[in-house]
Amino acid sequence: MSRRPLRILCVDDHAFLAEGMRSRLALEDDMELVGWLESAENLPEEVGRTRADVVLLDIEMPGPDPFEAMAELHRRCPKVRTIMLSAHVRDHYIDAAVKAGAWGYISKNDTPDSVVNAIRITARNEFAFGPKVLRRCQPDQNARASRAPPVSRLVQLTPRELEILRMIAKGISRVEIASILHRSPKTVDNHRRAIMEKLGIHDRVELARYALREGLTEP
């Protein structure tokens, strides 16, 4: 008796992506696109209605926060595998996705074949993260990415270091940071050096750019 095809639900506010995935999945005998949502609103209900096995979830779209929606889906439908899709691969997105229960994270710049491959991998209860994602993770992650979710460089930072990095992103000077934290500027410099070492960044300007790219000015 043949196994039924994997049922895929696409959640993305761009219709062309959903249609592109429908066309690509139509080439596969073991999977089919069973639905499309423009936002993560009522995601668990739609998963139940379509009996989806795998959800392809965009990160940046209108409506409910995708990470919160995925966490809720993970609580209510723990057997469903979620793969995050995004045009932006950021360290804090990777960590938030893993924390919310993602089984995969693929850049929209990766090939459609990468998405198909990720679907098959997650269906085997293994983690599937694209090459652009893995390049941003700790060095040993590539060897065990299928057996455990990766963690980005950002999670290496202590709460205090992350706090200082957020202030750097907002353009706050070292002297002002020291005043806010009731520490000496030298202590702030020590924290900044530790941050740069952990992130593999060797230039203060690049550190500020990294913080801005990561969206660390956001609450």
Structure description:
- The protein is an alpha/beta fold and 219 residues long.
- It folds into two domains: 148 residues, Response regulator (Rossmann fold), CATH 3.40.50; 57 residues, Arc Repressor Mutant, subunit A (Orthogonal Bundle).
- Helix content is 47%, strand content 14%.
- It has a six-stranded parallel sheet, with helices on both faces.
- Helix 1 links the parallel strand 1 and strand 2.
- Helix 8 packs across helix 11 and helix 9 crosses helix 10.
- It starts with 5 loop residues before the first strand and ends in a 6-residue tail after the last helix.
Secondary structure tally: strands: 6
N-to-C SSE string, H for helix and E for strand: EHEHEHEHEHEHHHHHH
CATH architecture label of the largest domain: 3-Layer(aba) Sandwich
Major beta sheet, strand line-up: 2-1-3-4-5-6
Concise overview:
It is built from 11 helices and 6 strands.
Features:
2 domains, 219 residues, Arc Repressor Mutant, subunit A, 11 helices, alpha/beta, Rossmann fold
Topology:
Blueprint: E1 6-11, H1 15-25, E2 31-37, H2 43-50, E3 54-58, H3 66-76, E4 81-86, H4 91-100, E5 104-107, H5 112-123, E6 128-129, H6 131-134, H7 141-144, H8 159-169, H9 174-181, H10 185-199, H11 204-213
